């Protein structure tokens, strides 16, 4: 399983909410500035975008990137699955249109995939406005056993950091349709299927959280997705009934609390789990 080519595709979705300046920087960091550069680039335009973003997509397409243009905004799952349909390499690296990949990201993650992991993420460093200012480091478990146990309550991988085997993702059906939580459901299905997940302890992506990130972590729509997520966890045997009740109560309540409380709880929880892991 470790015998796999180092060729890989960068898969980057873009939608109407993305800013051109952020997209330009994200593209440069993930393609041009990398020590190990992507062999191919696939950008999925998830529905109509601004004229300046469309012009940028035309430019990178003329330079060799593949741009998949969806006529309507179908959401992240649909966009990523459409991108996977045209990816020709076994290894796929995810990136978002507003985050910053550090130059060593792919040179760190690709060997980990070649050594046998099916999905590799990393720690992130969150910043709100200034990408040059020090941010808050958010780690994730790196040991497979601890990672799988941790995943029963919280996502084990930061989605914008992942690099994965396309075959492993397709083996569990690709990205499921679940607004805001499609990645967490995907990781759970892969764990149940015996796929191997891991994380680099290094910060490989700087994540643009912004003032609105805490608002996006709550609300009734996300609560509905949260409850559906927990139902599917229970249905597949990923969690027990006791864990189901715990998750619905704790994670569900978190979605409905005022934004300032969510921010306080999230910051406290992240500090608690920020101790180095094996």
What this model shows, in words?
Helices cover 44% and strands 19% of the residues. The protein has 278 residues and is of the alpha/beta class. It has one domain (8-272): Spore Coat Polysaccharide Biosynthesis Protein SpsA, Chain A (Alpha-Beta Complex), CATH 3.90.550.10. Strands 1, 2, 3, 4, 5, 6, 7, 8 and 9 form a nine-stranded mixed beta sheet that branches. Helix 9 (220-236) packs antiparallel against helix 10. It is globular and about 55 Å long. The two termini are 24 Å apart.
How many helical stretches? 11
What is the CATH topology descriptor? Spore Coat Polysaccharide Biosynthesis Protein SpsA, Chain A
Beta-strand level of the residues, as a percent range?
15-25%
In percent, how helical is the residue content?
A: 40-55%
Supply the helix-strand structural class. alpha/beta
C-alpha geometry: globular
Poorly predicted tracts of residues? none
Record field, number of beta strands: 9
Counting structural domains, the number is 1
Level-1 CATH class name: Alpha Beta
Query: What would CATH call the architecture?
Result: Alpha-Beta Complex
Order of helices and strands: EHEHEHEEHEEHEHHEHHHH
Biggest sheet features: 9 strands, mixed
- The CATH homologous superfamily corresponds to Spore Coat Polysaccharide Biosynthesis Protein SpsA, Chain A
């Amino acid at each position: 399983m470790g015998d796999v080519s180092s060729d890989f595709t960068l898969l980057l979705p873009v939608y109407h909410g993305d800013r051109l300046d952020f997209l330009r920087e994200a593209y440069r960091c993930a393609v041009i500035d990398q020590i190990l550069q992507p062999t191919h680039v696939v950008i999925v335009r998830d529905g109509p975008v601004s004229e300046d973003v469309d012009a940028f997509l035309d430019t990178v397409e003329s330079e060799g990137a593949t741009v998949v243009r969806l006529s309507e905004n179908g959401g992240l799952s649909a966009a990523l699955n459409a991108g996977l349909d045209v990816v020709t390499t076994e290894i796929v690296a995810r990136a978002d249109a507003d985050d910053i990949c550090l130059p060593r990201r792919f040179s760190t993650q690709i060997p980990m995939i070649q050594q046998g992991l099916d999905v590799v993420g990393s720690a992130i460093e969150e910043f709100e406005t200034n990408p040059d200012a020090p941010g808050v480091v958010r780690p994730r478990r790196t040991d497979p056993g601890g990672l799988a146990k941790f995943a029963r309550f919280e996502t084990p991988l930061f989605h914008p950091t992942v690099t994965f085997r396309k075959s492993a993702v397709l083996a569990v059906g690709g990205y499921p349709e679940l607004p805001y939580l499609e990645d967490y459901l995907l990781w759970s299905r892969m764990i149940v299927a015996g796929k191997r997940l891991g994380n680099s302890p290094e910060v490989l992506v700087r994540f643009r959280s912004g003032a609105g990130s805490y608002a996006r972590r709550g609300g009734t729509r996300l609560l509905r997705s949260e409850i559906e997520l927990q139902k599917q966890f229970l249905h597949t045997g990923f969690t027990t009934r006791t864990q189901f009740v715990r998750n619905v109560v704790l994670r569900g309540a978190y979605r409905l609390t005022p934004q300032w409380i969510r921010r306080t709880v999230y910051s406290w929880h992240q500090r608690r789990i920020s101790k180095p892991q094996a």
